[in-house]
Task: inverse folding
């Protein structure tokens, strides 16, 4: 069977399961039967998505598959919002509106998991180099949980009242997709939510569990480019030139003192120089050197302080070398993702009740970045929880000093899909029902 055939079979299994559930529900069937019937079909959907990853801004097939699966639940689906964005609206009478977000994009990583459904996709990157493409950040699990959540809500309409808006967001890895969907009217053309929810896979939480943190959960991320300027000349006669390489080297070292000396030790920040390029040959002093930095912080004041310090140090070193003023360009960046404490306090008891206390763990904030925080626009409270993906014995072994766990974005990251999918749907539907109680 070709890939499309496999996917269609999975969708029809979902629909078939739906028809059976209708009859069984009236006979008092409990939720474990729903999961027993639906998770195997959802796992087929997951494997199809995993096998066919697409890079940011190229999520055409993925969006089509997600839209098709969401439409199969009876949701009203609109496509191409903010690029390949998908918006599914599931209405169930008057009541509040809750948004559930999944992202859709994959990464330029060549998969090395050895899974039967591993991605074989290869594409040329912007420089023309061949690279593999892989769902190394688990967005395939996120989409599968979104479909499962829509399906569960459609099958249990007496358990909730109101409107669920389920979205597939493109280009999360470039932190562009949320901004694009909001700019194209996500909160104007579709019902505006009173809360926005999401989940993200975690590489260090056991499958079957979820993790959560209230308050800042993901850091802000800002890219800074610095063009260190000098005056080129012969390498043998540096006194006739202004050397930008020496300036850049001093700047890279001096930037390390910002976090260690200027950030409150109780707070956190990161300044990383990820790229440095200058010069062409041993005996030529170049005109300039380019640095590319990423800056992370949990608080806006910290972010502003880090950026001002970077600019001051770049200009200060140029001044000390009698060099032209450097060009420092700062991108718009992405705000921190903050889990609204009130929203967390409201939905976590519902998730605990469903999963059991032993399956809910506290996690630390991460200096990774997410554009989910942008859905907080206009005062919408947001909450993203972490979804465990690791076999419990594997986690235990790593904790005892065994083989380290592959992180997100690693070529070896591979969730335990059935447990992660079932747990993601259980947790997400519990949160949605808590926010959309039946009257
Ligand atoms: Zn990622
Ligand atoms: Zn991700």
Result:
């Amino acid at each position: 069977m070709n890939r499309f055939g496999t996917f269609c079979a999975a969708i029809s299994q979902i629909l078939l399961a739906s028809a059976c559930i209708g009859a069984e529900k009236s006979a008092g069937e409990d939720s474990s039967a729903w999961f027993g019937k639906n998770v195997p079909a959802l796992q087929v959907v997951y494997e199809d998505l995993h096998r066919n990853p697409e890079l940011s801004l190229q999520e055409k097939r993925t969006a089509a598959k997600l839209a098709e699966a969401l439409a199969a639940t009876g949701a009203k689906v609109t496509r191409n919002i903010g690029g390949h964005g998908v918006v599914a609206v599931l209405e169930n009478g008057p009541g509040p509106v809750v948004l559930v977000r999944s992202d859709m994009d994959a990464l330029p990583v060549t998969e090395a998991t050895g899974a039967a459904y591993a991605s074989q996709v290869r594409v040329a990157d912007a420089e023309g180099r061949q690279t593999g493409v892989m769902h190394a950040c688990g967005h395939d699990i996120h989409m599968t949980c979104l479909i499962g959540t829509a399906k569960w809500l459609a099958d249990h309409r007496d358990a909730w009242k109101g409107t669920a808006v389920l979205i597939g967001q493109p280009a999360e890895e470039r932190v562009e997709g949320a901004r694009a969907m909001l700019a194209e009217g996500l909160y104007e053309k579709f019902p505006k939510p009173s809360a926005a929810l999401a989940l993200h896979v975690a590489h260090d939480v056991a499958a079957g569990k979820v993790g959560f943190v209230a308050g800042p959960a993901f850091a802000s991320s800002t890219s800074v480019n610095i063009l260190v300027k000098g005056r080129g000349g012969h390498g043998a006669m540096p006194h006739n030139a202004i050397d930008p390489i020496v300036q850049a080297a001093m700047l890279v070292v001096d930037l390390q003192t910002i976090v260690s000396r200027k950030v409150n030790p109780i707070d956190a920040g990161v300044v990383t120089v990820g790229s440095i390029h200058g010069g062409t040959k041993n005996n030529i002093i170049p005109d300039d050197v380019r640095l590319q930095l990423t800056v992370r912080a949990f608080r806006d004041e910290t972010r502003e302080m880090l950026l001002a310090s970077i600019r001051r140090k770049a200009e200060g070193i140029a001044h000390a070398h009698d060099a032209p003023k450097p060009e420092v360009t700062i991108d718009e960046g992405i705000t921190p993702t903050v889990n609204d404490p009130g929203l967390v306090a409201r939905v976590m008891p519902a998730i605990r009740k469903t999963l059991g206390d032993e399956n809910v763990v506290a996690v630390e904030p991460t200096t990774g970045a997410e554009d989910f925080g942008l859905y907080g626009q206009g005062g919408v409270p947001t909450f993203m929880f972490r979804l465990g993906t690791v076999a419990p014995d594997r986690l235990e072994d790593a904790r005892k000093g065994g083989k380290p766990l592959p992180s997100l974005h690693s070529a070896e990251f591979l969730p335990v899909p059935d447990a992660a999918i079932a747990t993601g749907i259980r947790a997400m539907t519990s949160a949605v029902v808590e926010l959309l109680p039946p009257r």
